[in-house]
Write a structure and sequence with these properties.
Oligomer: single chain
Structural class: alpha+beta
Number of strands: 14
Shape: elongated
Distance between the termini: 96 Å
Length: about 260
């Protein structure tokens, strides 16, 4: 009878644990999503040759920034934790066949050693691994990219033969050009895009509204139906940088009227 009672208590404990897990899962499904899979929460650039102490601090600063972003979107730390983001434990099979658990600290240590072994500066990006509901922590991973130079200051990125006639909507032409050809050219050249929100196109650069207004004014005042719009890098730009653009407008002498 005692063995029977102990067995029933064990089954009851397991059922209660399963019920709590199911309730938690249902609760998550009913809550709005705070962070979606593949969203970028933070990035930093770590220069080559830094000491172990400085690299470790840079990684902690990155985690703190990711934590801040996740909290702003509605995520929250798990009970007993201080951050709203975490690097999940990983199960790795060794050559001997043995399986071991890799903790967050061990993952960070491996990343630190990879960064220090690089001869280049490194872009480190904190990216969400799965959807996280409001009030829940967001699992992340840290992705590394070599921070090589992509564009020199003033280097041409792309060009467009712009139809200046009002009925052709020059502004729409420019916006489409920036969102398609310029973005594609930047990514193909090595700019690491930012996926700030799931479902939106990744960003690679920025242009102020004032610059676009000035550009449209130049197009409006042009004496020909078409002008040549050349997009250049405003400054020397590396893979992890935000690409700042500048524009050059010239007469498009090669285009006929149409």
């Amino acid at each position: 009878l005692l063995d029977r009672a102990a067995s029933l208590r064990l089954q009851l404990t397991e059922l209660e644990s399963a019920a709590r897990e199911l309730a938690q899962l249902a609760n998550i499904r009913l809550r709005p999503i705070a962070v979606q899979i593949e969203e970028e929460l933070a990035r930093t650039v770590i220069a080559a040759g830094l000491s172990e102490v400085r690299v470790r601090q840079a990684l902690q600063d990155l985690l703190n920034l990711a934590d801040q972003t996740a909290r702003e979107r509605g995520a929250a730390p798990a009970i007993g934790q201080t951050r709203a983001v975490f690097i999940p434990e990983k199960r790795v099979r060794l050559a001997t066949g043995e399986q071991v658990e890799i903790t967050e600290s061990e993952s960070l240590e491996a990343i630190l050693q990879n960064i220090r072994a690089s001869n280049d500066s490194v872009v480190v990006i904190a990216v969400s691994l799965t959807n996280a509901a409001q009030g829940e922590p967001a699992p992340i991973e840290l992705r590394l990219f070599r921070n090589r130079k992509v564009f020199d200051a003033g280097e041409e990125i792309a060009r467009l033969s712009l139809d200046c006639r009002p009925e052709r909507n020059p502004l729409a032409q420019v916006l489409n050009f920036l969102q398609s050809e310029v973005r594609t050219r930047a990514i193909e050249s090595g700019i690491v895009p930012k996926q700030e929100r799931a479902g939106m196109l990744p960003t690679v650069g920025e242009t102020s509204p004032e610059t676009l207004v000035d550009l449209m004014e130049q197009a409006r005042q042009c004496r020909t139906e078409r002008v040549l719009l050349i997009v250049r890098a405003a400054k020397t730009t590396f893979a992890g940088d935000t690409l700042n653009l500048k524009f050059e407008v010239l007469p498009d002498r090669s285009a006929g009227r149409g």
